[in-house]
């Protein structure tokens, strides 16, 4: 039996990976650079959303085991990741 939190995180990653494969197949199907770029750009939205969601689910799972100081470090680390990903 799997832990509910681990199962949720893994399921989100499987869905995300499936979307990546579907996107690659769509690019091959369209066989046009412009359309492939549109499909690729759409994936740029999915990545950060999946990262935030899986991290939040995992964080909720371990939050009760962490001190406030460690929670602060985790939040700071996630903030740095999101700043690096989303900053243009």
How helix-rich are the residues, as a percent range?
Answer: over 70%
Q: How many E strands?
A: 0
How far apart the termini lie comes to: 43 Å
| Rounded average pLDDT | 90
Q: H/E element string?
A: HHH
Low-confidence runs:
none
| Count of structural domains | 1
- Estimated structural class: mainly alpha
Q: What count of helical segments does DSSP give?
A: 3
What form results from the Cα inertia axes?
Answer: elongated
Structure report:
The chain has one domain (4-86). It is built from three helices and no strands. It has helices at 4-30, 33-62, 68-86. It is elongated. The chain starts with a helix and ends with a helix. The mean pLDDT is 90. It comes from Paenibacillus selenitireducens.
Summarize the structure.
It is built from three helices and no strands.
Record the SSE blueprint:
Blueprint: H1 4-30, H2 33-62, H3 68-86
Helix pairs in contact: 1-2, 2-3
Top keywords for this entry?
88 residues; DUF2619 domain-containing protein; single chain; mainly alpha; membrane
């Amino acid at each position: 039996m799997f832990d509910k939190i681990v199962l949720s995180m893994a399921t989100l990653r499987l869905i995300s990976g499936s979307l990546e494969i579907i996107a690659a197949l769509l690019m091959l199907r369209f066989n046009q650079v412009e359309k492939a770029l549109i499909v690729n750009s759409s994936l740029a939205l999915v990545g950060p959303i999946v990262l935030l969601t899986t991290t939040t689910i995992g964080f909720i799972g371990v939050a009760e085991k962490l001190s406030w100081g460690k929670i602060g470090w985790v939040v700071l680390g996630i903030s740095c990741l999101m700043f690096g990903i989303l900053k243009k």
